[in-house]
Structure formats: structure tokens, C-alpha cells
Amino acid sequence: MNQKGLLTAWNDAKGFGFITPEGGGERVFAHISSYAGRGRPASNRKVTYSITKDAQGRLRAGRFQYAGAAKVGASLAPGVWVAAVVVLVFFTLLAGLFHQGFLPLSILATYGGVSLVLFVMYWIDKRAAQRGAQRIAENTLHLFELCCGWPGALMAQQVFRHKTRKGSYQFVFWLAVLANLGALGWLIVAPEAMSLRKHLGFDLSKSLRPLVW
């Protein structure tokens, strides 16, 4: 990041704006996917940035972040803390169910392992977006979210500020979360899931009988 300038005309709803070079010259397009600082960008802030080109050969900011006092004053996005609390509460509940014998270790490990893999996938996709390289298909990300990886996706979205402003993506993401939680609830309490529970090594038919019959 050897260029300095002023972030101008920033549209936070659409996630893009322009950087006016410190020494003058043509403005450079800047997208939220290239933002490398904390929190959310705001207009009329000094930034440092690198120069790259998009697929059409047009100049754009490769990475940019606040500079000087603006960088010091930038705070961690509140969404990161909210996501961290949600993930922590969810895994605490899973650990409690495991401790009480209502959930096998394999389920807890699956949520943790797939979440970690998906967190890394989000990071790779964010870097690809910044470089204009080939991206990971959204359907692939949604599939991993559905298959127990949504806690990792939720954290990655906030930490990397990735996919948070795309309404259609968020709609499918939360559908995947609800579908996954519904499947987990069905597995734990539904009488129809008894054979699957036995296959996974836990049988709650006696302890949960008052709840499901």
C-alpha cells in the first residue's frame, strides 16, 4: 500500500466509492471487498491503498485502509462481537447436550470441523475477490453452511466483511441455518430418527419419551 489518498463519495449501502489520490489525478474505484481495515469505511477519510486492475483492465484499489489518525480511530465492527456471541452460545449448548448424553461427540466435532473449513473458504473467496481471480461458487458455500458449517460462515462474514451486503446471499444463508437447526432438532427428539440415533451411537428414546409421546 504505497499510495495515499482521500476516500470520497463512499456509498456504504452499495459497498463502493472512490479514492482521490493525495497528489491529484483521476479517482480510483474502491470496493468494500478490498477494504483491509476495521469497521466500515466512511467518506472523507485518509487512506492508503494499492493499485490493481479489474477483468476489463480498469484501474481500481487492490487493498485499502485508513491511514494515520483515521486508522487509529477505526473500531472493530459490532457485527463481529454479535457473531462471536451467537457462535459461542451455540457451541456451549452443543457441549451441554454432549455432556448430558443427548448428543454424540461426532456431531459436535462435525460442527467444529466444517465451520473451520468454511471459515478458510470465506477467506480464500475474499482474497480471490480482491485480486479479481476465480471465486468459490456461492452454491458451494451454501452447501457447507447447510452441512453444519454455518457458525464458521457467520464469523467469517463479519471478520472478513464478506457477503454481508448481498441480500440474496444472506436470505439463502439464513435459510440454510434454519434448515440445519431444524434437522438437528429432528435428529435429537423425533421418534422417526431413532434408528439414525442408534447408528450414530446414542439413543434418547427413554429419556425423551415424555417430550415426544
Structure classification: alpha+beta
Number of helices: 7
How many separate domains make up the residues? 2
Low-confidence stretches: 209-213
Order of helices and strands: EEEEEHHHHHHH
Mass-distribution shape: elongated
Overall description:
The protein is α+β, with helices and mostly antiparallel strands and 213 residues long. The chain has two domains: 71 residues, OB fold (Dihydrolipoamide Acetyltransferase, E2P) (Beta Barrel), CATH 2.40.50; 135 residues, no CATH class. Helix content is 52%, strand content 17%. The protein is built from seven helices and five strands. It has a five-stranded antiparallel β-sheet with strand order 3-2-1-4-5. The protein is elongated and about 70 Å long. It starts with a strand and ends with a helix. The C terminus is likely disordered.
Summary, kept brief:
The protein is of the alpha+beta class.
Keywords for this entry:
OB fold (Dihydrolipoamide Acetyltransferase, E2P); 5-stranded antiparallel β-sheet; 52% helix; disordered C terminus; membrane; CSD domain-containing protein; transmembrane; NA-bd_OB-fold; transmembrane helix
